[in-house]
Amino acid sequence: MTRTVHDAIVIGSGPAGYTAAIYLSRAGYAPLVIAGALTPGGQLMNTTEVENYPGFPKGIMGPDLMDQMRDQAEHFGAQIEYDDVTSVDFSGDIKRITTDGGEEYFARAVVVTTGSQYRKLEVPGEREFSGRGVSYCATCDGFFFKDKPIVVIGGGDSAMGDADFLTRFGSSVQLIHRRQGFRASKIMVDRAQANKKIDFVLDSVVTKVNGDESGVTSIDIRDTTTGRTTTVPANGVFVAIGFVPQTGFLKGQVDLDEDGYILVEGASTRTSTPGIFAAGDATDKVYRQAVSAAGMGCRAALDAQEYLNTLEG
């Protein structure tokens, strides 16, 4: 059976993946984008208004931005497949990619832009009540907790934005953070602190999620300075404590750091394996912004083009 070998395949989507696809398409490589089955478009699909992406002075909804990027990639010739990659073999000159649907794809160059997933609290009750009070997406689930007590856990931009958004619904919103200082940008902290509906519970960590057949009823928190444990009423528990890179499917095919992020060479997007490039939140644990992911997707496409040129050459 004759197999189709693509010049380039992009694994993942989001700003990095779609930008890489746009550049590769315009260069004439007609890339295949394996965008994911459940979350094509990445984290921005769960974001409300994006105010800091250049070119949109009044902001743009996250899903709308991703739809426009996808449409632009397709306009220039990219092919989109909505499936999840389960394993890869990058050992030869022709790279093999296997998806959850059982399909096998082959390419000379691969750009990995699989992003990251929500980090879990890993406390008793979290898994049991996931989807029944415990949520990782405020914009998805906030409406279900109208006039009910809500807690948000975290200290970054996501936590601040989630808390601010959830005041539209909750009878109360408490933001719980393990220390006094925040990772969040000043503008996001100022916005949350200016919202009189948000109460801050600092120097505290969640130790347990409690509930019954109806869902979450409360959480236990421990004061990190005194060790005292208290129970806080809550029906909605929104976890916003960071992300874990979605790189498990690589299984030693490229070098990763101790946290599972893909390692690249210097300012390039080249990985330890020739012909494999990485961009976005799967490799960037510092900036984690849509615009920086898009920029890195551009660089990955250009690096992949240079590699493909050497093969042709």
Short description:
With 313 residues, the chain is an alpha/beta fold. The protein has helices at 14-26, 62-75, 138-141, 157-166, 186-194, 290-312; strands spanning 5-12, 32-34, 49-50, 60-61, 79-81, 85-89, 95-99, 104-113, 116-118, 134-135, 149-153, 172-176, 198-201, 204-212, 215-223, 229-233, 236-239, 243-245, 276-278.
Descriptive key words:
FAD/NAD(P)-binding domain; 23% helix; seven-stranded mixed β-sheet; disulfide bond; Thioredox_Rdtase; flavoprotein; 29% strand; single chain; 313 residues; NADP; Thioredoxin reductase
User: Could you tell me the number of beta strands?
Assistant: 19
How far apart the termini lie comes to 28 Å
Low-confidence stretches: none
| CATH superfamily descriptor of the largest domain | FAD/NAD(P)-binding domain
Shape: elongated
- Mean pLDDT, to the nearest integer, reads 94
Order of H and E elements: EHEEEHEEEEEEHEHEHEEEEEEEH
- Count of structural domains: 2
Q: How would a crystallographer describe the biggest sheet?
A: 7 strands, mixed
Give the % helix: 10-25%
**Beta-strand content bin:** 25-35%
| CATH class annotation of the largest domain | Alpha Beta
